[in-house]
């Protein structure tokens, strides 16, 4: 048996800037355990890495209802995590984590130090190619969460560039507990019910075994946008028409359009509309019907409104269940066998409006082969053509909504995890080996899409519109299925050998064999190009990864601790890569220490980015600068819906990264702990989707842009000459590329203050803040590095695909404890986001500064012209909320918690890029004052 060293803890200094008692509360001397970021046993105070630890008590104080909810409250996490937002795009139904705003692909998620399988999704957005679903982790099973914020590439995997989040479950758990929880706002909306519990028996030391099982079951009610009262409703109604008496001019009562000029194919002149709807729904087009533009053909014309607001979600309906079981058995005094199994299932349902066909040309893309053009044009003589019988009958195009078919979608995600292994001590080594299988499955059902062969009868057979809509099967519910898995065998061992002035030398070695698989199968009708408005997402790939790693700890002096680690990874199709990490901690006194780390990373492209796969997608509200506002163009050119193609690229090379951290931890007084850490991360050759705007504005990439080749749709110059290839956009090909890279740096601050109030109990306070100094990005090699911090990056520099990057995220909490009562108040802060449109691709194809620099909304794109009237500084405002949490332990074996989130009912700031919702659900929420009551009973 390896001899265990017992070391003196550094007084009042926490590795992550929190009290040691938060990790090992009642221990006279800290026990050595394996801490995230290392395979060597140590105490929390010994690591040179910046690690934030959330104990079980910390988790309870947050009032979090799920792991996703918990992660959303952490300042170090960026805004790009999909915490089940109202639309979700390609990540609908997922909850992911993004450290340092670098995306889920750079944030490694572990359970008990081992990987979980990525979700079976192919998200083409920046940094989202690999997504770990937090919904698969049961909150009730967690003992603590450890967040390594300086990267863990040399220990856990070369792709842990931004950091590691390690969810650690209970172990050697005895007894049982059960909890019930209910949450809702003051109007009983946004309801959520939860029951969870755990039961364990056997003592590993006395009985030679321990087994426990934990479960978590929850149900969430649907909340409509009308239920989201904590938003800037009146401003939003005026600026973007949210929840107004106008939703859409496309309804089950058709609107007819004629060509601008005969034979042009550009049907943008209102001719007439069916007005047989309820008179209360008849509207006259006007810019007062936001966001209708002055160039809209409906201006001054009558039409029937479609009221779709009731079908827009602020929160989708869902139910989920998780179960996790773990068992350990002592084979002998030195060897323990363990096994772990878990299963999770989440079902989410999203409402949505019925599908439409519109006057604009649409291209339906099969998986292979050329696209199929569709435009609902009624020829002369068609029974619904309103020009029949006039002096000059002409073909007309039609807008029509298939309201007899349900819209929306549903998602079912399941995850299965099986682990078995042995651990023990022999010949002076502590060792651990395991065989892991983890799979994620996804089944998505999208309702009511239009079936092209039947809709085409509109003009191939001159079938009346209502007869087309009444055909059985004219709309179809289509599926998208996926499966992702990881099979892994790993072995690692650690020992101590030799002595240095500061103590024994620590050594760890290990290796992994891993196979990754990803299989995404679209609906056969989508593959065949028979579904209007839905694109293909597909992948069928696997690869093997072989890794070895080592780590050494060198306590060269009593005050100086040095760590070094290295990892070698060999991915199929790539040369092997070595990623090093080194850390140093200098502790001159028990009250002060300096620490720092340097590490490198290597991330191979994901399976969906390079191996037999691709994702088609839609660009919505896309501003075609070539046509928008030009004579002969259409209002749709300013807010175009068109398809994009994110194609795999077998020539991609791996991303590389370099990370540096430096920090101090000190205790200026016996009741104060402070840590300040600086981080700097550099990523090069990033695998990213080329920006659609970068493609369309670069003359050298014109071959990737498809426009209508009917010359009748082309624009003319000042002399009246046709401008070649200037027709309406149809599609843009945006392949994956090795982009220019990202540079980000910032400062993390953690301050803990403990005060004894004598007979009045104690008061513990803690400030956690993350301040981003810069976040520079170049989309393509050779582009300038432009700082995007404090902005919505894709609007500030429209050649990038980076989202919102707040400069500051912080939380300040204070807990007053006395006898059986505990009261916690927490102030949360998210800084503002700018929508300045500063940089774009110039006429010469290079990225440069706009002259003048304007606001994206109102200046660059006119779909929200009133935005700068309300927000002349062109910013989404900062958001500050206050939470309260009360716990009562006066009943035997029982804890009752009562939480009020956003107790001041602070409204979510208005965000113009989320026009339907009016707020950014990744940074803010619209629940307002939100109540949670929970009771826990132990037995």
Structural notes for this entry:
By secondary structure, this protein is mostly beta strands. It has one domain: Beta Barrel (Maltoporin, Chain A). The chain has eleven helices and 52 strands. A hairpin with a 2-residue loop joins strand 31 and strand 32. The longest helix has 8 residues.
Q: Measured on Cα atoms, how large is the radius of gyration?
A: 29 Å
Q: What CATH architecture do you see?
A: Beta Barrel
Number of helical segments?
11
Helical proportion, percent range = under 10%
**What is the first-to-last residue Cα distance?**
35 Å
For this structure, what is the CATH homologous superfamily? TonB-dependent receptor, beta-barrel domain
Beta-strand level of the residues, as a percent range? over 45%
Task: State the CATH topology.
Answer: Maltoporin, Chain A
Contiguous uncertain segments of 5+ residues: 1-31
Query: What number of domains?
Result: 1
CATH class designation: Mainly Beta
Biggest pleated-sheet summary: 22 strands, antiparallel, barrel
Strand segment tally: 52
Identify the overall geometry.
globular
Average pLDDT for all residues? 87
Classify the secondary structure makeup into a structural class: mainly beta
């Amino acid at each position: 048996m390896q001899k265990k060293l017992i070391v003196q803890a550094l007084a009042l200094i926490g590795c992550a800037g929190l009290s040691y008692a938060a990790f090992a509360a009642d221990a006279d001397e800290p026990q050595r355990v394996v801490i995230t970021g290392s395979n060597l046993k140590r105490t929390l105070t010994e690591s040179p890495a910046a690690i934030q630890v959330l104990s079980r008590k910390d988790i309870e104080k947050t009032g979090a209802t799920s792991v996703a909810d918990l992660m959303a409250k952490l300042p170090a996490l960026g805004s790009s995590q999909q915490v089940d937002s109202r639309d979700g795009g390609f990540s609908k139904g997922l909850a992911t984590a993004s450290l340092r705003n670098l995306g889920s692909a750079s944030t490694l998620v572990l359970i008990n130090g081992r990987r979980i399988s990525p979700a079976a999704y192919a998200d083409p957005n920046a940094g989202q190619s690999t997504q770990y679903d937090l919904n698969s982790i049961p909150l009730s099973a967690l003992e603590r969460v450890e967040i390594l914020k300086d990267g863990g590439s040399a220990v856990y995997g070369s792709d842990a560039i931004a950091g590691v989040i390690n969810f650690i479950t209970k172990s050697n758990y005895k007894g049982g507990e059960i909890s019930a929880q209910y949450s809702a706002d003051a109007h009983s909306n946004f309801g959520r019910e939860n029951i969870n519990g755990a039961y364990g028996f056997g003592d590993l030391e006395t009985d030679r075994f321990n087994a426990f099982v934990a479960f978590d079951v929850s149900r969430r009610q649907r909340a409509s946008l009308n239920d989201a009262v904590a938003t800037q409703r009146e401003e939003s109604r005026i600026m973007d028409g949210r929840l107004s008496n106008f939703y859409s001019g496309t309804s089950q009562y058709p609107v007819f359009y004629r060509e601008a000029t005969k034979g042009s194919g550009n049907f943008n002149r209102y001719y007439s509309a069916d007005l047989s709807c309820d008179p209360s729904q008849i509207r006259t087009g006007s810019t007062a019907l936001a966001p209708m533009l002055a160039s809209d053909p409906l201006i001054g014309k009558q039409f029937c409104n479609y009221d779709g607001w009731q079908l827009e979600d602020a929160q989708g309906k869902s139910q989920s269940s998780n179960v996790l079981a773990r068992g350990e058995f002592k084979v002998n005094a030195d060897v323990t066998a363990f096994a772990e199994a878990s299963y999770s299932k989440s079902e989410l349902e999203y409402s949505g409006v019925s599908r439409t066909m519109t006057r604009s040309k649409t291209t339906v893309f099969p998986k292979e082969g050329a696209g199929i053009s569709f435009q609902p044009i009624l020829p002369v003589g068609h029974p619904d053509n309103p020009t029949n019988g006039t002096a000059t009958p002409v073909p007309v195009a039609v807008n029509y909504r298939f309201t007899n078919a349900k819209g929306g979608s549903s998602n079912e995600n399941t995850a299965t995890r099986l682990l078995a292994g042995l651990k023990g001590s022999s010949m002076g080594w502590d060792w651990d080996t395991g065989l892991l299988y983890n799979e994620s499955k996804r089944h998505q059902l999208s309702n009511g899409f239009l079936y092209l062969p039947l809709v085409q009868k509109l003009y191939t057979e001159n079938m009346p519109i209502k007869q087309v809509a009444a055909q059985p099967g004219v709309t179809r519910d289509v599926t998208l299925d996926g499966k992702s898995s990881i099979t892994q065998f790993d072995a690692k061992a650690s020992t101590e050998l030799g002595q240095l002035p500061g103590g024994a030398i620590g050594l760890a070695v290990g290796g992994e064999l891993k196979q990754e698989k990803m299989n995404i199968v679209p609906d056969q009708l989508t593959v065949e190009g028979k579904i209007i408005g839905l694109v293909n997402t597909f992948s069928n790939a696997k690869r093997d990864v072989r890794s070895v790693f080592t780590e050494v700890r060198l306590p060269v002096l009593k005050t100086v601790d040095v760590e070094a680690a290295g990892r070698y990874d060999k991915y199929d199709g790539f040369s092997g890569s070595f990623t090093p990490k080194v850390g140093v901690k200098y502790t001159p006194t028990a009250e002060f220490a300096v620490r720092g780390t340097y590490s490198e990373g290597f991330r191979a492209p994901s399976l969906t980015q390079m191996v037999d796969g691709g994702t088609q997608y839609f660009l919505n509200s896309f501003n075609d600068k070539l046509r928008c506002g030009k004579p002969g163009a259409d209002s749709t050119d300013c807010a175009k819906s068109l398809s994009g193609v994110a194609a795999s690229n077998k020539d991609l090379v791996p991303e590389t990264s370099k990370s540096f951290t430096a920090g101090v931890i000190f205790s200026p007084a016996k009741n104060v702990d402070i840590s300040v850490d600086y981080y700097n991360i550099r990523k090069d050759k990033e695998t990213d989707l080329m920006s659609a705007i970068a493609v369309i504005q670069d003359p050298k990439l014109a071959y990737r842009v498809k426009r209508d080749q009917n010359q009748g749709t082309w624009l003319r110059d000042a002399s009246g000459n046709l401008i070649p290839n200037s027709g309406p956009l149809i599609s843009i090909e945006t392949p994956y590329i090795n982009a220019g890279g990202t540079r980000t740096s910032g400062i993390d601050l953690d301050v803990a203050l403990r005060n004894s109030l004598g007979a009045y109990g104690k008061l513990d306070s803690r400030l956690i803040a993350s301040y981003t100094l810069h976040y520079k990005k170049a989309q393509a090699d050779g582009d300038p590095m432009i700082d995007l911090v404090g902005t919505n990056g894709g609007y500030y520099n429209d050649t990038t695909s980076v989202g919102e990057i707040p400069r500051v995220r912080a939380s300040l909490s204070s807990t007053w404890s006395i006898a059986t009562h505990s009261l916690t108040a927490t102030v949360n802060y998210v800084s503002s986001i700018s929508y300045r449109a500063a940089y774009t691709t110039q006429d010469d194809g290079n990225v440069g500064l706009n002259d003048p620099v304007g606001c994206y909304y109102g200046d660059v794109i006119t779909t929200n012209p009133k935005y700068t009237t309300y927000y002349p500084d062109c910013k989404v405002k900062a958001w500050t909320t206050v939470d309260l949490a009360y716990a009562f332990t006066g009943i035997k074996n029982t804890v009752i918690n009562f939480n009020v989130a956003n107790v001041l009912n602070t409204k979510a700031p208005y965000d113009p890029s989320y026009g339907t919702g009016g707020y950014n659900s990744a940074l803010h929420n619209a629940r307002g004052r939100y109540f949670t009551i929970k009771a826990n009973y132990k037995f």
